[in-house]
Design goal:
The chain is 96% helix and 0% strand. With 49 residues, the chain is an all-alpha fold. It is rod-shaped and about 65 Å long.
Length: 49
């Protein structure tokens, strides 16, 4: 009984990780692109102030 419950939990975690990993990659790509924009904004802040 316990083994089956543990296995089902592990399988559920693996499925969740499989679903999250592509999302994480997309988020990382989204974060990388604005990172350059953020750097530009930080460079512009001192000049504007």
């Amino acid at each position: 009984m316990n083994n089956n419950q543990q296995q089902s939990r592990l399988e559920g975690q693996i499925e969740e990780q499989a679903k999250c990993s592509p999302r994480m990659e997309e988020e990382c790509q989204d974060i990388r692109i604005p990172a350059h924009l953020v750097a530009e904004v930080q460079d512009e802040e001192p000049t504007s102030s």
